[in-house]
Amino acid sequence: MPYDFSSVSALSAPLQTTGNDVILSGHGKYDLRGETTVPAGIELWVLAPPGSLLSDATGGALEHMDRITKLAVVSPKTKGLSPVAPTRYAAGSKAPNYMISAPRGLDLRPGGPHILGVEANTYLDALWTRVAPFVKQDRITRVFWACCTELKGQENLQDNEIPLVVHA
Predict the structure, then answer these.
(1) How confident is the model over 91-110, as pLDDT tens digits?
(2) pTM given for the model
(3) What does DSSP assign to residue 14?
(4) Residue 144 is inside which H or E element, if any?
(5) Cβ–Cβ contacts within 10 Å for residue 42, how many?
(6) What's the gap between Cα 152 and its chain centre?
(7) Structure confidence by residue, pLDDT tens digits, 21-55
(8) CA 141 from centre of chain
(9) 144 alpha-carbon distance from chain centroid
(10) Residue 60 dihedral angles phi and psi, to the nearest 5°
């Protein structure tokens, strides 16, 4: 579905992944089970605010290193767009210990950065060891949570009742 981004302000800096980045792709949840510390040499980027879905197209834009100039949350009731900025967690900071599930039913289209997925429910703190081989001493490795951040209890809602993050 095309969205009218004319009233949505641009991100302070366009977002575009590179071949040095890591993308965690799958279905995601934010079940308030504590926090994880972002390891040295890593920045964690989360595009979907807690309780929202991430569109396949936006996840695909990360996977294909497309330039994202605007991010917005689509209201489930009015279908209006509200600007949103990605949340960045620097190395050493605390981040929600998100849970990722297998990407069944998602349209994954690898074509750029390193993409990591799972076959079973896995918490973010258990994924840091899988990200570690991509971390280089001379630079920060960006890790993108290309997943929803559905809250516990939202499983009973239809997708059209949960805010959706889209991009321009």
Answers:
(1) 999 999 999 998 777 666 66
(2) 0.93
(3) -
(4) strand 141-146
(5) 20
(6) 17
(7) 999 998 899 877 799 999 999 999 999 999 999 99
(8) 15
(9) 5
(10) -65, -35
